[in-house]
Amino acid sequence: MSWWAREPGRVxxxxxxxxALVARGGVLGAYRWELTPEAGVRIQATLAxxxxxxxxxxxxxxxxxxxxxxxxxxxxxxxxxxHQFRGDGVxxxxxxxxxxxxxxTAADMLGSAWRLLVHEAIAAVEPWEIPSRHVTHLGELVRxxxxxxxxxxxxxxxxxxxxxxxxxxxHIIVSESGFQVWPLEVPSGSPLxxxxxxxxxxxPTTGRLLRLGPDAPREPPRDRAGFIEFVATHTGRRCGDKFxxxxxxxxxxxxxxYPLAGETITALVDVPLEDGGPRLPTRTAAITxxxxxxxxxxxxxxxxxxxxxxxxGVRRFVLADGDVLLGxxxxxxxxxxxxxxxxxxxxxxxxxxxxxxxxxxxIPLTSMLxxxxxxxxxxxxxEVLGKVDVLVDATADPDVFNTLADLAxxxxxxxxxxxxFEGGLGGLVGAxxxxxxxxxxxxxxxxxxxxxxxxxxxxxxSLRPYESGGDIPLVATDADVSFIAAALTTRVLEAGxxxxxxxxxxxxxxxxxxxxxxxxxxxxxxxxxxxxxxxPWCWREPEAPDPEALRRATAILTGKEPDADDPDRT
Length: 570
Ligand SMILES: [Zn+2]
Description:
Largest sheet: 8 strands, mixed
Radius of gyration: 35 Å
Number of helices: 15
Bound molecules: zinc ion
Strand content: 15-25%
Number of strands: 19
């Protein structure tokens, strides 16, 4: 139902307000209502602007009066004012969608349009600034002209130090959403800092960097012939008929990019790559830039954690997984369909490079721990994983957990692990850290001892693995896994922060009602205290060997009786 049929009283009130405005004189000359099946209700009105008149149209939105009407010139496309959207469209008035109230009327909008046009007519005679509410947002510019130059801050610095014209290297991305130009080297051969490393791998296009002479006007002509003439006059360079990408540099160092294509030459819209201001807490940035994280299991959970850590500034990873990315994995994995058929480790490494602006070090281990693999390879993997600052077990595989728990305890590396419960019921995140908690095995044993008092557990990892070894696929939404992945990522960052207030060693998150969760978002903390649970090996090096056994072992291995003055023999 149309708004006027729903609220006929509103039409009467609008009519009264319009009549009052006409009666006041000098603003609204004449008006008439229009009702058509296609356009609905409109008002055709004439504004009195001193000696002349201006026809305008008021259009009402479907949900009037809850939303704001629009006033535009008649005929359409007439440039009336400095305050028009798209230059010649709807007038930008004091009242707009951001401050509209249902008590305003179409007569108020017409009065506002009249004030704008009268003030502009006066300003044309004597300078008078009309305050503008019409901010040209970057979004509006790109929507109208989706050809952009992505500018790292380093570009301006580089251009300021350049004294000559030359070539520069760019990466051009042409897609449905537009045309993006990424400068890579300015001039050619000098890479710009701050450009995402993933872009550098692509084959660059060469553009031309042209310094303009001191008399060059701000705006080059937009027609092709005029533009080419402008370039020739102010740079001495003749452009040909072929496509060229130009970067014009004015004497003050300001620069704009121009693709030389078509009959109308329009500057690329400048999009800053950085916009000042940190986006990460300083403390997080300090931690993430210094740690190396080892992630075992690059399924849905592990891939999300890896990407989130990279977004938080982690640049050094060891990634271990022996599986191939399959189509159905994309339901919850951070990877994309075009990566199906590659090792999950390699798919994850590619994702990390995409989200990081700097180089990312990824050591790929393409075999799962605790699987039937070559013992020497297994040893090598443990050696590599033993050199990280935080270990993450995202496999929910008890055998992998045991292997990593042993490695963590022996090397004194914090181990953080998580699992998602079947059916999206929720999940758990556990952590064991030297000097803060008992060792991983003790934390797990402590947790399981407490869980014995609970109702029978759902089908879950403590009992069986998922997404490894060809088990039944996990049934859960991407949101369920993301929720647990976010908790796991937070726990990893906390484990890397020596000054953090650590959470309970095991935390269970409920996402649905069931098992121990009375309703969604129930959380349960499980404390495992060192006094209750600490094994003889908790975070300890093996005991010093028995000297006599060592002496005899040496004799067997070397085939010699040890010297009487062997320093080991005391
Ligand atoms: Zn222990």
